């Protein structure tokens, strides 16, 4: 019996250790474009730097620093694949120079397979479609929150877009009776878009590179009726040279309206681009300015 108890304690200790290490891995993934230190990471989980270094390498096969470099390299390659310029991809990924990028590329660091699930592998994503004043809207959610809000002309094109964003997930259409929470979220967002109700504060499941996440998080802080330029947004997130990368991150936002990328304009005040068309962007901004003026006058 004593041996069994000790075995159970060992498993529990191992589980808690892995929980801490996964927490650090996730932190690195979402802050990969920032300068991270071993001491700072260790403080997050209450370990000494040397102990974190040893345990992390035992669990994932690489050090925290090598893991961060691998995440940066993955983001860099994805940015290039998405058509971003090399210099924009460098800044967006957190590399400080061209030589640093190619130095890391030659090291050829691999990503531990258990550290990242691409394309929604193993997940179930439920979606619903609804007509709005901006056209047909599709909203989809995981068990963590809304992962997709997009507009289009047909349900088939919207569903195709959803599957393209999450190619390895199981995508299900769900009538209201099977997903009452999702239906309530769709209705709340429709009321915001079509009737001017307050924008619903819904749980979001945002997925992107560390740089994209930083851009999207800042977008959530922009108040209704306010706008700023792509260059101003780049400066706000301490990446003043990454204006094109900021614009690219806005363009890759897959959760329309709830993440208000429509509030970012060109430096000359022009609308710039919008994934779902400039007419929709103009309609959203006009409605928000109208509500802002009404609130100021009341």
From TrEMBL:
One GO-annotated biological process of the protein: methylation
Q: Which family does it belong to?
A: Belongs to the MGMT family.
Name listed for the protein in its UniProt record: methylated-DNA--[protein]-cysteine S-methyltransferase
SUPFAM superfamilies, A to Z:
Homeodomain-like (SSF46689), Methylated DNA-protein cysteine methyltransferase domain (SSF53155), Methylated DNA-protein cysteine methyltransferase, C-terminal domain (SSF46767)
Q: Identify the domain of life.
A: Bacteria
How would you classify this enzyme at the top EC level?
transferase
Q: Which residues form the HTH araC/xylS-type domain?
A: 22-119
A Pfam family this chain is assigned to: DNA_binding_1
Instruction: Name the chemical reaction catalysed here.
Output: a 4-O-methyl-thymidine in DNA + L-cysteinyl-[protein] = a thymidine in DNA + S-methyl-L-cysteinyl-[protein]; a 6-O-methyl-2'-deoxyguanosine in DNA + L-cysteinyl-[protein] = S-methyl-L-cysteinyl-[protein] + a 2'-deoxyguanosine in DNA
Q: Write one Gene Ontology MF term.
A: DNA-binding transcription factor activity
Q: What is its EC number?
A: 2.1.1.63
CDD domains this protein is in? ATase (cd06445)
Under InterPro entries, the record lists:
Homeodomain-like_sf (IPR009057), HTH_AraC (IPR018060), MethylDNA_cys_MeTrfase_AS (IPR001497), MethylDNA_cys_MeTrfase_DNA-bd (IPR014048), MethylDNA_cys_MeTrfase_DNAb (IPR036217), MGMT_N_sf (IPR036631), WH-like_DNA-bd_sf (IPR036388)
| Swiss-Prot/TrEMBL keywords | DNA damage, DNA repair, Methyltransferase, Transcription, Transcription regulation, Transferase
């Amino acid at each position: 019996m004593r041996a069994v108890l000790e075995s159970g304690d060992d498993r529990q200790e191992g589980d808690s250790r892995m929980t801490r290490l996964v927490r650090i891995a996730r932190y690195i993934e979402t802050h990969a474009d920032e300068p991270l230190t071993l001491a700072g990471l260790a403080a997050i989980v209450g370990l000494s730097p040397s102990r974190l270094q040893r345990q992390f390498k035992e669990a994932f096969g690489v050090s925290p620093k090598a893991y961060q470099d691998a995440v940066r390299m993955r983001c860099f390659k994805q940015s290039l694949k998405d058509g971003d310029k090399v210099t924009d991809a460098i800044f967006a990924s957190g590399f400080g120079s061209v030589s640093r990028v190619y130095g890391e590329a030659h090291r050829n660091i691999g990503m531990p397979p258990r550290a990242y699930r691409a394309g929604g592998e193993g997940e179930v994503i439920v979606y619903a479609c609804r007509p709005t004043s901006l056209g047909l809207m599709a909203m989809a959610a995981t068990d963590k929150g809304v992962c997709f809000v997009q507009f289009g002309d047909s349900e088939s094109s919207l569903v195709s877009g959803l599957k393209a964003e999450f190619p390895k997930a199981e995508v299900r259409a769900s009538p209201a009776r099977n997903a009452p929470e999702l239906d309530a979220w769709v209705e709340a967002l429709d009321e915001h878009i079509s009737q001017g109700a307050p924008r619903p504060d819904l749980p979001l499941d945002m997925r992107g590179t560390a740089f994209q996440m930083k851009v999207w998080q800042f977008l959530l802080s922009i108040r209704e009726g306010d706008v700023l330029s792509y260059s101003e947004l780049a400066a706000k997130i301490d990446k003043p040279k990454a204006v094109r990368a900021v614009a690219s991150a806005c363009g890759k936002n897959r959760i329309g309206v709830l993440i208000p990328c429509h509030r970012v304009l060109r430096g000359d005040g022009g609308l710039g681009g919008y994934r779902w068309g400039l007419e929709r962007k103009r309609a959203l901004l006009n409605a928000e300015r109208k509500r802002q003026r009404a609130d100021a006058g009341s």
